[in-house]
């Protein structure tokens, strides 16, 4: 056995094959920090790079919470930090490339500070190929952990500090939910709340069911407890998170679903409730009815369609047809006439013909999406679609993406024009990067709104009269109306 093979053997590495195995029931564990660990980070600082989705943002809040509980201090300068965590995203090749680039750049900090601990976490760590590449070519990475063992970060730091050993521990799945993990939230008025982890959908292009594991819902009592505590602290908006929130509860309740959870949360009277991400296959009538009943559930629905061709949807394993999708959109519009609907679309998926793509364009026109995240398909190793033979030529995908973007931008602008002259309620989130005294926030329909105002308004709900329309944002002025 070569030295390299010996090294590989002693690490706990992920396996995409094992990650697909989902038999065991969910258990709940409590998080505990010892008196000794509470002092581990005295006089030490950390910095976190967060890549990818809101799920990663929420995980970084947990990293912060645990490190702060151990007396580490957050630094805003990576060159001065004692620990740097890269919380990575594996959804697309471009996301991974950004991480590889950052890892290369961080080498210089390691050279100037040999005591620096460099930690690779998040979805990329769950891929066997990532571990192999890091072990071979990135010797300056000290700790690799996955999405299932964030709670063990302090143990890994101790191992790396005291045993001077590289730590690699990535589990392929987890059947437990660690409740009571500490979190440090950057905002007191807006909070992300995980209601479930993992995904059981297995869209053929997606690596997430392997990197995030089986669907595991948090118990409703623990979610409501967290929300009630946030309300007491003055929180105005919560965003419920899950890879497929519409499947909430399927793994642990026989008669309680996402719609029921939404209603219980609406009854807490928190002013604003949002959620992401949804799956059309699991979106049910109850959820739509509850949304229409409670004005504190925001009238915005992000419903990824991915393709408007039923043939391609089948190849993607999305479990719905173009017609199914359109009928759910009709229900949403019927029950909630003020709703704005946004989506995700992949172009150039394997086997996509010009006629499939035209189906996508026709669906986009019919639904009149108010916004769309559009992507060129990128192959993810380990997914079924990576083995599909009819890959679409990159130049064809690019040309389709341009045509699609032209249409979606046109529709976004058209939808934004509806707000011209209207007064909208905005939760003020911060100062806009451009312009003095320009603040930004989001309307109920999740429109980005810029307006002039004093910083003291950050964290408050204000009324803004819209007077200029742009494709990507609305401009307005404070209104007493
Ligand atoms: S629903 Fe599909 S695209 Fe979304 S996380 Fe699950 S497998 Fe991936």
Key phrases:
481 residues, alpha/beta, Rossmann fold, pyruvate-formate lyase- activating enzyme, OB fold (Dihydrolipoamide Acetyltransferase, E2P), 3 domains, five-stranded mixed barrel, 14 helices, binds iron/sulfur cluster
Instruction: Report the CATH C-level class of the largest domain.
Output: Alpha Beta
Mean of residue pLDDT? 93
What fold name goes in the CATH topology slot of the largest domain? pyruvate-formate lyase- activating enzyme
Report the C-alpha radius of gyration, rounded: 23 Å
From the helix content, strand content and strand pairing, which structural class follows? alpha/beta
Q: Which architecture name of the largest domain does CATH use?
A: Alpha-Beta Horseshoe
Task: Provide a descriptive summary of the structure in words.
It is a single chain. With 481 residues, this protein is an alpha/beta fold. Helices cover 33% and strands 22% of the residues. The strands form six sheets. A six-stranded parallel sheet has the order 3-2-4-5-6-7, sandwiched between helices. It has a five-stranded mixed barrel with strand order 17-18-19-21-20. The model has no long low-confidence stretch (mean pLDDT 93). It has helices at residues 3-10, 16-19, 54-69, 93-112, 128-137, 153-162, 208-211, 220-232, 258-266, 285-293, 310-315, 322-335, 354-367, 394-417, and strands at residues 27-30, 45-50, 73-74, 83-88, 117-122, 143-145, 167-169, 176-179, 190-194, 196-197, 216-217, 237-241, 272-276, 300-302, 340-347, 371-376, 423-431, 438-443, 448-452, 461-469, 474-479. The protein is built from 14 helices and 21 strands. Iron/sulfur cluster binds next to helix 7. The site of iron/sulfur cluster has 10 residues, from helix 7.
């Amino acid at each position: 056995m070569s030295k390299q093979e010996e090294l590989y053997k002693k690490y706990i590495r992920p396996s995409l094959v094992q990650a697909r195995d989902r038999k065991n029931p969910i258990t709940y564990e409590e998080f505990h920090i010892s008196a000794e660990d509470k002092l581990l980070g005295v006089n030490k600082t950390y910095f976190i790079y967060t890549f990818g989705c809101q799920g990663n943002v929420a995980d970084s809040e947990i990293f912060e919470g645990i490190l702060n509980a151990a007396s580490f201090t957050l630094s805003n300068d990576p060159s001065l930090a004692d620990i740097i965590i890269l919380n990575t995203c594996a959804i697309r090749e471009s996301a991974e490339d950004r991480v590889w680039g950052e890892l290369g750049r961080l080498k210089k900090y390691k050279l100037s500070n040999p005591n620096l601990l460099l930690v690779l976490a998040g979805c990329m760590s769950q891929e066997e190929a990532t571990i192999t590449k890091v072990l071979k070519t990135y010797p300056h990475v000290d700790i690799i952990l996955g999405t299932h063992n964030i709670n063990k970060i302090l143990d890994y730091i101790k191992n790396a500090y005291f045993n001077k050993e590289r730590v690699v521990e990535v589990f392929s799945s987890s059947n437990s939910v660690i409740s009571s993990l500490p979190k440090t939230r950057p905002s007191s008025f807006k909070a992300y709340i995980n209601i479930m982890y993992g995904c059981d959908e297995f869209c053929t292009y997606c690596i997430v069911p392997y990197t995030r594991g089986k669907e595991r819902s948090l118990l409703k009592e623990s979610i409501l407890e967290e929300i009630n505590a946030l309300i007491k602290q003055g929180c105005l908006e919560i965003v419920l998170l899950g890879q497929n929130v519409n499947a909430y509860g399927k793994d642990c309740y026989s008669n309680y679903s996402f719609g029921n959870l939404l209603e219980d949360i609406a009854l807490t009277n928190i002013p604003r409730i949002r959620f992401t991400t949804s799956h059309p296959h699991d979106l049910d009538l109850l959820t739509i009815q509850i949304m229409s009943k409670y004005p504190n559930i925001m009238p915005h629905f992000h419903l990824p369609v991915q393709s408007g061709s039923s043939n391609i949807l089948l190849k993607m394993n999305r479990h719905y047809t173009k017609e199914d999708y359109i009928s759910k959109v009709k229900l949403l519009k019927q029950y909630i006439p003020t709703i704005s609907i946004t989506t995700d679309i992949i172009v150039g998926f394997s086997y996509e013909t010009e006629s499939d793509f035209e189906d996508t364009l026709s669906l986009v026109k019919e639904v009149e999406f108010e916004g769309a995240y559009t992507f060129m398909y990128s192959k993810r190793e380990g997914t079924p679609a990576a083995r599909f033979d009819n890959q679409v030529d990159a130049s064809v995908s690019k040309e389709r993406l341009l045509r699609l973007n032209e249409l979606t931008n046109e529709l976004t602008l058209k939808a934004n024009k509806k707000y011209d002259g209207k007064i909208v309620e905005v939760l003020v989130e911060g100062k806009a990067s451009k312009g003095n005294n320009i603040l930004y926030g989001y309307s109920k329909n999740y429109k980005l709104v810029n307006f002039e105002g004093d910083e003291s308004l950050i964290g408050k709900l204000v009324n803004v009269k819209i007077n200029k329309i742009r494709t990507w944002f609305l401009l307005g002025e404070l209104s007493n109306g």
